[in-house]
Amino acid sequence: MSHDHGHHKETFITKYIFSIDHKMIAKQYLISGLLMGIVGIVLSLFFRMQIAWPEESFEVFKIFLGEKLAPGGVMRNDIYLALVTIHGTIMVFFVLTAGLSGTFSNLLIPLQIGARDMASGFMNMLSFWMFFVSCVIMIISLFVESGPASAGWTIYPPLSALPEAIPGSGLGMTLWLVSMAIFIASSLMGSLNYIVTVINLRTKGMSMTRLPLTVWAFFVTAIIGVISFPVLFSAALLLIFDRSFGTSFYLSDIFIKGEVLHYQGGSPVLFEHLFWFLGHPEVYIVLLPALGITSEIIATNARKPIFGYRAMVTSIIAIAFLSTIVWGHHMFVSGMNPFLGSVFTFTTLLIAIPSAVKAFNYITTLWKGNLQLNPAMLFSIGLVSTFITGGLTGIILGDSTLDINVHDTYFVVAHFHLVMGISALYGFFAGVYHWFPRMFGRMMNKTLGYVHFWVTAVCAYGVFFPMHFIGMAGLPRRYYTNSAFPLFDELADTNVLITVFALVGAAFQIVFFWNFFYSIFKGKKAVMNPWKSNTLEWTAPVEHIHGNWPGEIPEVHRWAYDYSKPGHDDDFVPQNVPMKEGEEELHH
Predict the structure, then answer these.
(1) Total domain count, the chain
(2) pTM (2 d.p.)
(3) Is the Cβ–Cβ distance between 415 and 394 less than 8 Å?
(4) The domain spanning residue 219 has which CATH number?
(5) H or E element: which one contains 297?
(6) What average pLDDT does range 493-513 have in this prediction?
(7) How many other C-beta atoms are found inside a 10 Å radius of the C-beta of residue 372?
(8) Does residue 584 carry a pLDDT above 80?
(9) Neighbouring C-beta atoms of residue 122, cutoff 10 Å
């Protein structure tokens, strides 16, 4: 099957803007995700400075927030909540979901399964542009006069349902909802595309049991997305009705300034159920791609077959299934029936099993491997570390009797930032360092990569490790200052320490950005397969061509992890190398 694309010349617009080529769309997602990441990080630094040095005047607040939101350089208390809200929204949805699924599913699914492109290039382009529009609307909501949405990234009613409740419930909240609705549509189109591509477009010989673990992770992630995103869409739709059309799905007897509002019969807990039915799987929509990327990178750089391939696939599927039936553990303090609480406790603790399988298999793959400690490998090992430390506190929070004591304290913040935020970010960084030569045909600077890793790793633990302790001491989250409570006075220094780590860690992300953008144009030219890897994406030329491979699509003869295989001269055997006489596949 030969593809002759010589007849239509690509213009700048069809190549770089409205591209239907999955490799270009991956780069668009990557760079949009990085730019949104800058916004998310800057917002977090603003509110960290406020919590560490409450009521101080900062020049930087005057410049960025303006006189209205930070009079005299002192942050207004409601703006603190707005920054927390938008930071959470941007990091969870726009950076991690798009940066991992958008970038790496797009880049790797067609290349690793031996497909010419995604099932629908047009739908792929549409899903990126809807994502981009939703990013723009979310950024615009920061500049609304009444202030951005400030009901927390979980936007619980009644704060989010009553435009008159607080300044941040007005136009900022409406824009938040519009942005999220468009984002969900974009995610759904992307997910459907990924699923169809994996099922229908695998090359000859690429059975499901020969798929690299990365593709398994992206595939299962897309399935979770298709199951749970529509539920958030319906939650947002009902919220829009409550806000604008006088319904009361989420509102019951409410008083504002002593005046009785005419709502009755609704329940804010209904919103929590709908929200967390997406909100918990969302954690894994973010985390599974990072775990898939890590599996690939650890096997490649340990020069060993991944340990327990089938157990890894099973655990991905088990995590996906369990993650959709545990949402109630976010609601142990909502007055839930204690029996129901015990059911959710049980299903939540079950997730520890497939997660532990993954952790043990990573460690066993590393054990006695010939480790190549490049930046991608370091970030992958870092992910294993934060996945374990963050996961251990999940066992505490998953237990209703224990959770009630630390719910809504900094303990929760520490837990989910480590297990989801930092782990997913490490997976993202690992993926960028590893597949950068595949994307841009050049290498990133290794020394800068090491600096970036070590400072990030120290600062990430420096920020989130102490939070466990101030959380257990009872410090509530989302308070813009704790100076009104003398009992928290001795925790003030810890908050200053956390903020210093956050500022240093954020500053050193500039090293990464410099390395990334400089290397695109000036990096060392990369060879075709710089990491001596087995998967198909390294058999395709880096030049931007339609259809990925100039001639025939490679045929697959073996699984993706034949590293250091006895009887072969090289320590890696790519998937498209035919089997020798008397050789067998390891994972059967």
Answers:
(1) 1
(2) 0.95
(3) yes
(4) 1.20.210.10
(5) helix 268-302
(6) 97
(7) 14
(8) no
(9) 11
